[in-house]
Amino acid sequence: xxxxxxxxxxxxxxxxxxxxxxxxxxxxxxxxxxxxxxxxxxxxxxxxxxxxxxxxxxxxxxxxxxxxxxxxxxxxxxxxxxxxxxxxxxxxxxxxxxxxxxxxxxxxxxxxxxxxxxxxxxxxxxxxxxxxxxxxxxxxxxxxxxxxxxxxxxxxxxxxxxxxxxxxxxxxxxxxxxxxxxxxxxxxxxxxxxxxxxxxxxxxxxxxxxxxxxxxxxxxxxxxxxxxxxxxxxxxxxxxxxxxxxxxxxxxxxxxxxxxxxxxxxxxxxxxxxxxxxxxxxxxxxxxxxxxxxxxxxxxxxxxxxx
Length: 307
Ligand code: FAD
Description:
- The protein has six helices and 19 strands.
- By secondary structure, the chain is α/β, with parallel strands linked by helices.
- Helix 1 packs parallel to helix 2 (55-67), helix 1 runs parallel beside helix 6 and helix 4 (154-164) runs parallel beside helix 5.
- Flavin-adenine dinucleotide is lined by residues 7-13, 30-34, 36-38, 40-41, 44, 46, 78-79, 110-113, 115, 133-134, 137, 243, 246, 276-277, 284-287, 289.
- Homodimer.
């Protein structure tokens, strides 16, 4: 059995594995895709001390750092079920999609999250070529340009307010009749001079030319008329979904499906910790996920020496 078994190989999982392995304890990582969301990222300019890198390079560095230690890396392995320890101090079991099963004294869940897609023509084609999901990450790339934000919930309106300070103009496109964000955010949004809001607007296409976004097409759901807006960027803000479906019924989750953790990364199950985008941690960022992974590993080590 492992002392520490990490599920997920993104920034949180890699940091957890490095911290655990440095304690000289038996450490394993099972990940569906080592590197995680970072693999899909173009430029990374906010990982402190690294002025600029790109996603694939960062993912390779995560793996190299983890491989520098005695860590059993099981890549391309999807966890399907977690079985809590039968008695205090017992082993936690994780069952894999390939039929295998892993046992460990402590488990760190770091399965991350995924941005919900709008699934319209152009979205996949222009991903990272004008289509973006993270305003904290990619906002500065659109300085002085025109962008749209799809989604009028809290994350969409926060993104629109944030972007309005950076870009030339922001158009908010919301499917429903009204913006769903908190009233205080909506009020702030309406006070900004360079924002236009379209409600009852169904995005039908993200258009582009020469490999770059050049506009967004939406249908006015009241009149049925199609409109085309010229712009350079589209931020899709219709939800971040934690990869925790497989934990439903075993680990305590928030109403958004995030694993509920305390400041030490402890879940409701003894010996089971969690870190990164799959948890209730505020703000989903690489530096935050990596820090949370370190916290969870140190907490797991603390748990081991006490049990
Ligand atoms: P993830 O990176 O999501 O990793 C999750 C890991 O778990 C993966 O290895 C995955 O394969 C694995 N996994 C999932 N389910 C299972 C399962 N059932 N069994 C086994 N393994 C599983 N943040 C920044 O700080 N700066 C940026 O510039 C930036 N740009 C971004 C650009 C894009 C396009 C995206 C999508 C995100 C960006 N982010 C950025 C956010 C950042 O990537 C995440 O906050 C960070 O990757 C979270 O790390 P994590 O380890 O918690 O999860």
